[in-house]
Structure formats: structure tokens, C-alpha cells
């Protein structure tokens, strides 16, 4: 079946919209953005209420709710250590989550679905900045290839549904995200929350130095999760195509430079040391965001301001932090 004619435009604010993973950092940001945009019938279920790895439960849920729109933000996520230690779980859990939600959404012909992946889908040594057509052109970063393979499968799943059933589903690939609701686990967190926790604890205890993994030379692009959520709604209303869309800021810094910004934000005045015996990960992951820009979207939160706001959120929620991994 050829894809149905579809002209992107404003979504129906009264339609039932399911945000899978609405309590995670990404899903909660999407939820906030949809609320602020006037959506009235948002649906979400926590993992204790609905295990997305349970196929029968997912099908029963979607049959009961009958959403018109779905944002698939649910995933097992973690930093370089967690990914490297638990590839089976990162592959199996994410494949099951994605497949179950997509298959259930397909059975009930969900009109519009947005699948969220990650920039780790691209080859480790992809030409920079990374274009969308770099997908499947080289070897992945070994430390997170299981997670990346699962996300690539999700992209192909969206493309398959478009080709076979003609539904206008889309995929978006955000760069490294940060912001409120992040995972600040000492072993399971990503780059920025790990740095915030490490430097804040050092500042509080008066530690003379902080030791970070790797050499500090790899470059990373960081996007505030609220900007990412705004981009998601923009894509749902302005984009229709089989290819994934990169979501980022189009600029990057070395990890050493990012660490210095975090140290300044928390008030740490000691020195920073680097443990070069630990892995650096991918040397650089800067996304080409020209497609997103051509659709009329630009980020609005500057990195310095976003880090300061995230530090404040971290301190305000010290007793209730999400720690996974």
C-alpha cells in the first residue's frame, strides 16, 4: 500500500494522545509541552501500572484507550557504563517496548506516531556534522551498540508501517539531552547529570579535585529536554517523511569544556583530573540539523542557562531524585 496523502498541520488538541514513558525525563518534557500547547486528553501510565515489555498488557491498554496520537518516548536508557555492562537488557527491553507499542498502535490504526531515538544510531566515525543519511553507513560505538541497534530497529519499524500501511508515522533522533527529571544515578546516568552530581558533591564536601572518565577531549552536543519537546510537537505538525529527523543545536563543546561549565554552575573551585584508563566513547557526535531548521524550528535555551537551571532543579529535588542503573 502506498503512503496515504497527509498534509502536516495543527494536531487536534481534544484528541486522545498517549505519551509512552511520560514519567521519564523525555516523556515528562513532552507532556509539559503538550499541556502548555492546549492538549486536553493526555494519557500516560507508569511502569508499575503498565509494563511495556508485556505484549498482551500493551495491546489491552491501547485497545481500551484508543489514542489518536502516540509519542513513543519510553525506553531503557543509561550512560556509557550502564550500556557497556548490560547490553542484553538494553537490546531486549528496548526492542520489546518499541515493538509492542508500535504493533498495538498499528492494530488500532493510530493516525500519528512519533518515535524518539538517539544520536547513537549513527556510525562511531561518521562525518561531522552527522547527516540523516549517515545511518547504516559504518560501525557503531561498541559501548552502546546494543541500545543503538534497538533504536535503529525502531526507525525501520516506522518506515515499514509507512510503506506497508500508509500511516504517516515519523521518527526523531535527539542529540544528548539534559534537564529536569534526568537520571542522576552514579552508575546509570548520562554525561551532564553525572557531572552535575559529581561536582556538586565535591563542592559541598570541599573536595580538592574531581576525577572524570576519559581524556576530556571528545566533543558533545547538548540539548535541553524542553527544547527537544518543543521540537517534537513542531515535527508532528510540520513534517511527514520516512527518514528520521535530527534534533539538536548544531554546536558542540569538548567534555572538558562542559565539565568547566558545570563546575562553575555549582561553585566548585578545585581542580579537575581525567582518568584516561576509562573509555572516552564516540570521539564526536555533532548533528546536522539543517533539515529541522528548514522546517522552521530553532532551539531557545542557551547551554549556560540550561545547566544553571538543571543544577537548581537537582538541588531542589535532592530527596526525590530518579536514580536508575
Characterise this structure.
Helix 1 crosses helix 7, helix 2 (55-65) runs parallel beside helix 4 and helix 6 (191-205) packs across helix 8 (255-266). This protein has a domain at 17-179 and 223-250 and 286-301: Rossmann fold (3-Layer(aba) Sandwich). The mean pLDDT is 94. Helix 1 (25-36) links the parallel strand 1 and strand 2 (42-43). It is globular, with a radius of gyration of 19 Å. The strands form 4 sheets. A 6-stranded parallel β-sheet has the order 2-1-3-4-5-10, with helices on both faces. It has a 3-stranded mixed β-sheet with strand order 11-8-13. Strands 6-9 form a two-stranded parallel ribbon. The chain has 325 residues and is of the alpha/beta class. Helix content is 40%, strand content 14%. The chain has 10 helices and 13 strands. The relative contact order is 0.15.
N-to-C SSE series? Answer: EHEHEHHEHEEHEEEHEEHEEHH
Based on the coordinates given, report the CATH architecture of the domain at 17-179 and 223-250 and 286-301: 3-Layer(aba) Sandwich
Give the helix/strand class: alpha/beta
Q: Would you identify the CATH H-level superfamily of the domain at 17-179 and 223-250 and 286-301? A: NAD(P)-binding Rossmann-like Domain
The CATH topology of the domain at 17-179 and 223-250 and 286-301 turns out to be: Rossmann fold
